[in-house]
Amino acid sequence: MKFIDQVKNTMKAQKLVSPGDKIIVGVSGGPDSVALLYLLNTLRYDLGITLHVAHFNHKLRKSADRDQKFVIKLSRKLHVPITVSSAQQKFWKIKGSLEELARRYRFDFLIRTARKYKTSVIALGHTQDDLTETVLMRILRGTGMAGMRAILPKRVIQGVTFVRPLLNFSKKEILSFLKKETIPYRIDPSNRSQKFFRNKIRLQLLPLLERQYNKNIREVLTHLANTMAIDYDYIEKDGELIFGRLVQREHESLIKISLNKFAKLERSLQRILLRLAIEKLKGNLNRLTLVHMTEIEDLIQNRPRGAIVHLPDQIFVSKDENSLLILSKR
Q1: Which one-letter DSSP state was computed for residue 201?
Q2: pLDDT tens by residue, 102-161
Q3: Which end of the chain is more exposed for a tag (fewer CB within 10 A), N or C?
């Protein structure tokens, strides 16, 4: 079966898009996103979709402007409209992980673009390799069932549906498709830099695990993520029902949970409820670890009123006499 037919069948089986959808396609210029754009553009009539390219220039390296020009030229060649934005240099002086800041700025840009063009679907070019790397990163940083799902093929965040049609396919398959179709793409030199945690996983740890422990480690991690996704989906649906009953959304940046009602829940549902609340304020659960969860639990059980737990991305958890307060200061 041709690669493009495999992608189409996967998209239909996972119900990633529907006829009439206008899809924002995040394109960096790298092989994965370029392959995604070509594949969606070829399938657009079969799937009944229209496309709009979104490119975010992080301005972190000299070749970034050349990447931008490449993506603009590619979009014009395929006759797909494009929106481009870039980060201001002053933003990179904010304290925090460079990887996380870059991800956040790109995410915010994609959400803005989707809302500007009144669409609710964003397609990203994450592959099976990204999935396995993310599972390992989460395990090493400390995570639970939710974190080990790693990357989902379809996920609603802030009212926008993010889809990843290439998540079942390896980087090797993507590169083979591009070579066969003689499709050019850009290479990000920072992907070889081992100062980034993800790159260390990709370039050092995964090859070591394959050589010395399990040559099928990528498949093993993929199966782990898929199993966790299925199990967690069931628990999360229960959590959503409870969330609607127990939680008060005071305004965009504040969520209140009744401590008395919270205490009556099973511990697993308590954690689900906390994750849902944090995700609704933060937009994701990136960098949220088991250490953070146990800190919140200690706050609830042992710490005085007014004590604060600091979470990633300026999320704070505190409590008053009757309620747990989850606050965003972004």
Answers
A1: I
A2: 788 899 899 999 999 999 999 999 999 999 999 998 888 877 787 888 889 998 888 899
A3: N
How many alpha carbons lie under 13 Å from residue 225 in its C-beta half-sphere?
26
Number of domains within the chain: 2
Kindly state whether residues 60 and 186 are assigned to the same domain: yes
Furthest C-alpha separation in the chain: 65
Q: Cα dist. 43→19, 298, 325 in Å?
A: 12, 51, 47
| Global pTM value | 0.84
CA–CA separation, 147 and 225 (whole Å): 9
- DSSP state letter for 256: E
- Whether residue 318 lies inside any domain: the answer is yes
DSSP 2: -
Burial class (CB in 10 A: 0-12, 13-18, 19+), 6: middle
Q: Which SS3 state, helix, strand or coil, does residue 324 take?
A: strand
In this structure, what CATH number is given to the domain that contains residue 57? 3.40.50.620
Domain boundary among 148, 176, 208: 208
Range of the domain at 55: 3-126+164-208
Tens-digit pLDDT profile for residues 313-325: 889 999 988 889 9
Region for residue 79 given its phi and psi (left: phi exceeds 0; alpha: psi -120 to 50; beta: otherwise):
left
